[in-house]
Amino acid sequence: MAVIKEPFQIVYERHFSEIYNYVYGQVLNKERAEDLVSEIFIKAMEHYDGYDPEKASVRTWLTRIARNTVIDEFRKSAIRNHQSLDDEENVIEPSYEDEYGIWQEEDKREVAELLSKLKPDERELLSMIYFQNMKNEEIGNVLGINAKAVSERHRRLLKKCRNLVESA
After folding, report:
1. Contacts 24+ apart (CB under 8 A), 129-135
2. Do the domain assignments include residue 2?
3. Is the distance from CB of 23 to CB of 63 less than 8 angstroms?
4. Is residue 70 assigned to a domain?
5. How many domains is the chain partitioned into structurally?
6. The domain containing residue 86 runs over which residues?
7. CA 20, CA 37: separation in Å to the nearest integer?
């Protein structure tokens, strides 16, 4: 039985906030996140005819587009700044001017500060788990790893976060 695709407007409305949250969790800057999310949905709209719902859920498909867009942005930034993404000097300063409300409360600001201390791939994993509520299988599909590997990375990352909080 063939899966029927929803109109793109519904896809946009249903998934905008989770894609925004994912991207914001990566770049921790409102303006940069908004620009990237616009770019992501333009790409998605342009390629929606080629999307096959039998290969992946629309959320997984959008997250792949978002992931590739963010990676491209980090690469461009690294080239412009002549820094690797792991340089200590390349720490992101969170932007708390979030009109979508995900960082308005003090505890969420503390989370943003913690995220700013993590590497991009670590922020990405946490964004998929906590901002998008993706299951390990979906995350594995996006990252090209199995669900068990996702679980193990998550476990190690939580330990790292606990250590960062305790040392603060």
Report:
1. 129/154, 130/25, 131/18, 131/21, 131/22, 131/24, 131/25, 131/102, 132/18, 132/19, 132/21, 132/22, 132/59, 132/63, 133/18, 134/59, 134/60, 134/63
2. no
3. no
4. yes
5. 1
6. 8-167
7. 6
For 21-47, the DSSP string reads HHHHHHH--HHHHHHHHHHHHHHHHHH
Report if residue 42 sits inside a domain: yes
Dihedral sign, Cα of residue 98, residue 108, residue 27, residue 129? negative
Q: Report the pLDDT averaged over residues 60-84.
A: 80
Residue 31 lies in a domain: yes
pLDDT tens sequence across 35-68: 999 999 999 999 999 999 988 999 999 999 999 9
pLDDT band at 107 (very low <50, low <70, confident <90, very high): low
